[in-house]
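Hi V.,

Quick status before I head out on leave. The structure for the redesign project is tokenized and pasted below; the design run finished overnight.
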């Protein structure tokens, strides 16, 4: 049995207790003569206003309680680590953990305790969950009261849907005498969760919401602070909309809001529905369980930490005040039990902190070792987490990754993660952060100032799977460049990120064949195809994937990636106009659901009739060629069959060079000229094997024509030489755009100068720029050609104080926002 299957079985067994709705032995379920509803105290709720929270605060029922990621403990890691996991949610155990937290971790901000699956046993006469009498002989309320008396908060667990037993019992719904539980299900019955435990509630009928309200009000009367909502779909291994818990999430969010109870979604929710999760929840698990399901051996493994990096490269921009990316339990406190080396433990703690993820541990808090306490109680690292600024990677194309975030005080948090197999020096360049000018550097784990550095910093001998965590503080006179998706940039009106309004930076080779013959020829092409192998670092695999090499079956590069688990998927973001999914067909394979840019396209079959053979390689099972030229994402989800494979992806891109190949004959030397498919101002440079050609000497640009000079070509050795033409794009390859007149960008900064850069394009018009509430200029953004990274406004000589920049769309088809740069006072 694989780890993923074991985890599903165990989780399902525990989750089944939540929704089974079977009364204790000797009791009966009846739909008549129900006792009078108990009195439920009404909570006094102060709803924060948009002005008090700011334009970038997300929604969610907890309100201002979720302005920072929570810190605490969850029972689940110990429930699966220990042979008798149920002992970890008894009254005695929860009280022991609460007291240990109070003594060791609470002074540092840890104050949430979440009780995972298995806490309840049956329902009351209204179909609402009843706490287990076996686990809580003096009542769960006594445990809750103890936790609250320690100054802590308490959380419980549930999943979507309702059990068949409760449906059939037709119980009255508390506070809604016109409804019974028999009125609740979607008919015919449909599964509600990934394990098939319960059935969907029909929220198109008022009784559905009233039933959830009745449970939330009960939780509120207990003093509940937190609810983990598990098996949320799309996600939880099912993303084809055959299961869809979005209505459940909305209903629970509305029901919990009156009590300001934090709503946390689990597990591996689908990023294509991130806007829904952000609207209704306060946190969402972005990946599978961190636990290794190694009973009695370890809590987790390095592999389960390492796989989070590519996931966060996609998710980081979706988190912020009010809603957070959840990485699951941070199991770094119990030494050998953690399943990680000391360096890996610190790397995990750093990843949670720089991602502004909820820092909740799964360890036994009564047995924290000294190193675990050191990791969990470093106030400077905790401050990084609580600043609420999710980090982003400079690049994920290397195993030496630099992640960074810009803080409200103009400092940067920078993490140098060595994910490789050897100790390594690692360098962060200030330019990669958007910083120009000198900066002071402090090592947060070592609590040591390292000095001032002009243009970057190099960490020495960072160990295998280790990290160095830095605070980088720009000095006076430095400038900071802020991208359009930074948390400090606010938007009024209807804005979208990219949506084919962006221009990504790309490169394309001019292939020059150097010969000594008298023949010379060129080839004109309008497009080109890039082959992306299955082991490309930019392919994001979700679930339990493996790679098979050296099969000798005709695979591209003689390897494939494969999975056996339905719901597992891969996704790949690319720049271009089309993509092919290339795989093997075989009798052991089945259906795959294809999504492009978050939209379901079709179900394709990778099945091969046995009469036609086995292992038929390099088959194009899905192809699209009419996409707008821009950034797109293809995602494929395993639906059936024993296996799903990925061999390669073919990406079609518009050619920016015409021709894209040429021949230089040393016997009859002549310049080589090509025409550019972009404005010549977008050409950032030409290089050969990483060495830049010199403009004006090695090549010239006249209009849209680039000419490579004879004097340079004559130096090349005979053979094929790719000259890499690099084209500039939007800053960090993305923009925000709006088509609505009156929509606005807002940015607050402290400094003495500010500048705004964006595109000039035929579809753009005018924008009004305000500084500190005063209109200072109307800028014309129209251009005959589409060009990026154009500074269209600047203001200098401002008083060294806090200022506000506001940009408002006046006319034109679209307004794009790319980057804002401001200057720190000298």
């Amino acid at each position: 049995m694989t780890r993923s299957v074991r985890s599903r079985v165990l989780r399902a067994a525990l989750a089944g207790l939540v929704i089974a709705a079977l009364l204790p032995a000797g009791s009966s379920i009846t739909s008549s003569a129900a006792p009078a509803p108990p009195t439920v105290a009404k909570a006094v709720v102060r709803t924060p206003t948009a002005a008090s929270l700011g334009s970038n605060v997300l929604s969610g029922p907890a309100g201002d309680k979720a302005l920072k990621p929570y810190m605490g403990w969850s029972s689940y890691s110990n429930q699966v680590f220990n042979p008798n996991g149920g002992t970890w949610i008894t009254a005695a155990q929860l009280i022991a953990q609460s007291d240990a937290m109070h003594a060791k971790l609470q002074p540092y901000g840890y104050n949430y305790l979440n009780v995972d699956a298995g806490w309840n046993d049956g329902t009351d006469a209204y179909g609402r969950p009843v706490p287990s009498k076996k686990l809580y002989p003096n009542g769960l309320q006594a445990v809750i009261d103890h936790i609250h008396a320690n100054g802590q908060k308490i959380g419980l667990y549930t999943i979507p849907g309702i059990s068949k037993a409760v449906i059939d019992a037709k119980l009255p719904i508390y506070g809604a005498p016109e409804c019974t539980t028999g009125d609740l299900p979607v008919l015919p019955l449909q599964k509600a969760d990934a394990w098939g435990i319960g059935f969907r509630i029909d929220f198109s009928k008022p009784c559905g919401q009233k039933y959830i309200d009745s449970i939330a009000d009960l939780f509120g009367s207990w003093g509940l602070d937190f609810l983990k909502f598990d098996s949320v779909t799309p996600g939880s291994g099912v993303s084809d909309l055959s299961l869809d818990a979005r209505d459940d999430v909305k209903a629970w969010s509305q029901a919990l809001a009156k009590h300001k109870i934090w709503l946390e979604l689990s597990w591996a929710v689908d990023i294509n529905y991130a806007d829904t999760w952000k609207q209704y929840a306060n946190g969402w698990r972005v990946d599978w369980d961190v636990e290794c399901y190694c009973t009695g051996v370890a809590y987790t493994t390095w592999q389960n930490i390492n796989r989070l990096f590519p996931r966060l490269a996609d998710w980081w921009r979706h988190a912020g005040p009010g809603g957070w990316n959840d990485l699951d339990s941070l199991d770094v406190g119990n030494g050998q039990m953690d399943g990680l080396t000391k360096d890996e433990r610190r790397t995990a703690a750093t990843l949670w902190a720089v991602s502004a993820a909820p820092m909740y541990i799964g360890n036994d808090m009564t047995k924290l070792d000294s190193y675990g306490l050191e990791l969990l109680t470093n106030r400077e690292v905790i401050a990084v987490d609580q600043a609420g600024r999710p980090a982003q990677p400079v690049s994920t194309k290397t195993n030496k990754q630099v992640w960074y975030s810009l803080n409200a005080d103009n400092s940067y948090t920078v993490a140098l993660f060595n994910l490789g197999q050897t100790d390594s020096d690692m360098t962060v360049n200030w330019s990669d952060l958007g910083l120009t000018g000198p900066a002071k550097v402090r090592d947060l784990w070592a609590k040591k100032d390292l000095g001032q550095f002009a243009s970057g910093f190099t960490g020495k001998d960072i160990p295998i799977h280790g990290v160095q965590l830095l605070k980088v503080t720009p000095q006076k006179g430095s400038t900071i460049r802020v991208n359009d998706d930074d948390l400090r940039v606010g938007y009024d009106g209807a804005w979208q990120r990219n949506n084919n309004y962006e221009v990504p930076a790309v490169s394309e080779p001019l292939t020059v064949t150097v010969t000594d013959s008298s023949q010379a020829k060129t080839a004109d092409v309008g497009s080109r195809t890039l082959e992306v192998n299955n082991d490309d670092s930019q392919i994001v695999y979700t679930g339990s994937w493996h790679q098979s090499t050296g099969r000798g079956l005709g695979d591209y590069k003689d390897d494939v990636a494969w999975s056996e688990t339905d719901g597992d998927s891969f996704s790949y973001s690319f720049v271009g106009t089309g993509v092919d999914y290339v795989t093997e067909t075989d009798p052991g394979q089945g259906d795959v659901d294809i999504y492009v840019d978050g939209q379901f396209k079709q179900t394709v079959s990778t099945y091969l009739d046995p009469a036609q053979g086995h292992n038929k390689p390099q088959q194009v099972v899905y192809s699209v060629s009419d996409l707008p030229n821009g950034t797109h994402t293809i995602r494929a989800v395993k639906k059936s069959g024993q296996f799903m494979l990925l061999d390669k992806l073919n990406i079609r891109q518009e050619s920016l060079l015409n021709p894209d190949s040429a021949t230089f004959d040393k016997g009859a030397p002549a310049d080589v000229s090509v025409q550019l498919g972009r404005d010549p101002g977008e050409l950032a440079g030409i290089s050969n094997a990483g060495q830049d050609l010199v403009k004006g000497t090695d090549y010239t640009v006249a209009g849209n024509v680039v000419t490579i000079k004879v004097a340079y070509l004559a130096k090349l050795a005979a053979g094929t030489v790719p000259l890499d033409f690099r084209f500039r794009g939007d800053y960090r390859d993305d923009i925000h755009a709006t088509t609505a007149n009156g929509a606005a960008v807002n940015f607050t900064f402290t400094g003495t100068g500010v500048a705004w850069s964006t595109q000039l394009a035929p579809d753009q018009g005018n924008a009004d720029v305000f500084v500190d509430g005063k209109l200072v200029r109307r800028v014309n953004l129209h251009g005959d050609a589409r060009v990026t990274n154009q500074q269209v406004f600047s203001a200098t000589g401002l008083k060294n104080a806090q200022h506000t920049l506001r940009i408002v769309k006046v006319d034109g088809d679209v307004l794009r926002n790319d980057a804002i740069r401001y200057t720190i006072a000298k």
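Above is the designed sequence. The mean pLDDT is 91.

G. will cover questions while I'm gone.

Best,
W.
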